[in-house]
């Protein structure tokens, strides 16, 4: 563009409203405090009302899939921790499940129990902090979030003791788990699980009946069930609309068929339902944990057929999916018989749950956009990969 | 009543505020540089190389097989093999790493190198206060910096280290038994060879006779 042309250049007007007024175009993010990382929403506003919303992402793209195709099967495991860095253990499980399907490995019963325990602990800490962040965006600056983090900290200490790292656990392996439980770990889990209902009760006392929370979230960001199903939305986002779809119940992967638990369903599909569902899911996770902790069997934690070095599954393809705290997390792998996958694809719940963001935000106020975005519960590491 | 929920919630925060003065349950933070939480045994941070005994060079377990270099997901390990050999822990001559560098600004602490190492030579350290003003040289650890004694390993991961020691001692005993058996077999063979010349010519002559 020449200097003269630049001087007279005006950015094109995005659109005009029905009344013919010019719309105001606002870029929320990528450094907006509400965006959970680096995410931009190009919002067109008519007054305070949102008439158009364009999500822009890719700021955190790390080429995860291509790196995994160039590295060995094992070397992709630590990278899965970094997808949804809040729930690295469920990410590990989904990837391990896909490779186990591909290679025909069987997981010993003890390892299955450990997987369920770690996954449910992950779900609890994810939901606790998701509620905390939602409140943060509502203006409750820090208090509910810090209460949630206090609880999360206890669970992260358990993870550190078991896996060596608080967040980047890198714990599960193809055909089992990496290391045996340290002595007394299960007792510590039992103590912390016994203390969790009190934390949830306190959270509920603090938030559930709160008039500000109800006024801000009830009837806001409504998602219709047919749209949610058509868009492939999963997890809490889908269940808040009343669709009964939990992969723990549908696929019964691992040993989830042995545990008795209920799947909480929403009715209205608004933000308040999503908040409430997370609280209820935490309570159900505690139930699962109590049942799982009761009878952890002894025995090996690795399939003897599994190899650390020189792991080469036979040619074929496999799709492993689990109910991650944020929705259906799937890994699709194609093997050509070599040491690294021919194709490696992640089906991230965060990205697919974001696709309906505009539909939920249209006609809402700017301040509600922040809330609606927060209620989707995403992690940008998983959106951009 | 409108506002009842808010008041109830404020009661909860008041309980937490008051409780933070008396109960450890409600005040979980520590004043970090002065106060520290107890280290957790399994904690891992960055890799280090284990050596036995007192001499860093003579006791180094690493044989520069380069498996960790190949398997490392972010490729932060750089190894140059030596041209000469030195004896390893069972006394077998092995090559050793002439250079062993780990760029810990790239390392992501995944401990895959530890898992794939067949010689128990690389383990995870727990030291985390590594900040430096030298961005490049200060975060590139060479072989000397990385080598740490087996005692240090015992200090940071006692359970795991004793397991490793037991495994290595077993392997060493096996290797020694094998060497002994081989030596015995060789001696027997030599003895047989010493007695053979008198016995062998007899059948050799038969076809001619």
Question: What does this molecule look like?
Answer:
The complex is a heterodimer of chains A (385) and B (209). Chain A is built from 16 helices and eight strands. Chain A has helices at 3-8, 64-70, 77-81, 88-103, 109-138, 143-163, 185-207, 211-217, 225-230, 236-239, 247-250, 271-294, 349-354, 357-361, 366-376, 380-384; strands at 24-28, 40-46, 49-56, 172-173, 176-177, 316-324, 327-335, 343-347. Chain A has a single domain, classed as Cytochrome-c3 Hydrogenase, chain B. Chain A is an alpha+beta fold and 385 residues long. In chain A, the strands form three sheets. Chain A has a three-stranded antiparallel beta sheet with strand order 1-2-3. Chain A starts with a helix and ends with a helix. Chain B is 42% helix and 17% strand. In chain B, the strands form two sheets. Chain B has a three-stranded mixed beta sheet with strand order 4-1-6. Chain B has a three-stranded antiparallel beta sheet with strand order 2-3-5. The A-B interface holds A 67, 71-72, 74-79, 81, 143, 147, 150, 153, 157, 160-165, 168, 170, 178-179, 182, 202, 205-214, 308-309 and B 2-6, 8-9, 11-13, 16, 28, 40-44, 67, 71-73, 108-112, 115-116, 118, 124, 159.
List the helices and strands and how they pair.
The complex is a heterodimer of chains A (385) and B (209).
Chain A: H1 3-8, E1 24-28, E2 40-46, E3 49-56, H2 64-70, H3 77-81, H4 88-103, H5 109-138, H6 143-163, E4 172-173, E5 176-177, H7 185-207, H8 211-217, H9 225-230, H10 236-239, H11 247-250, H12 271-294, E6 316-324, E7 327-335, E8 343-347, H13 349-354, H14 357-361, H15 366-376, H16 380-384
Antiparallel strand pairs in A: 1-2, 2-3, 4-5, 6-7, 7-8
Helix pairs in contact in A: 4-5, 5-6, 5-12, 5-15, 6-7, 7-12
Chain B: H1 4-22, E1 47-51, H2 67-71, E2 77-87, E3 93-103, H3 112-116, E4 122-124, E5 140-141, H4 143-146, E6 147-149, H5 150-156, H6 158-199, H7 201-205
Parallel strand pairs in B: 1-6
Antiparallel strand pairs in B: 1-4, 2-3, 3-5
